[in-house]
Amino acid sequence: MTNQITFIYYHIIKNQLVGIINQRHTSIMKREKGKLTRKSIVEKSLRLFSEKGYYNTSMQDIVQATGLTKGGIYGQFKSKEEIWHAAYDEAVNIWRSKVFKGTREISNPIDRIGKLTENILKNYIGAKVFKKGAFFVPMLFEFSGHSVNMTDKISKGFEGFSNLLYRWLKEAADAGLLKEGLNLKEIANFIFIS
Question: What is the pTM of this model?
Answer without folding.
Answer: 0.76
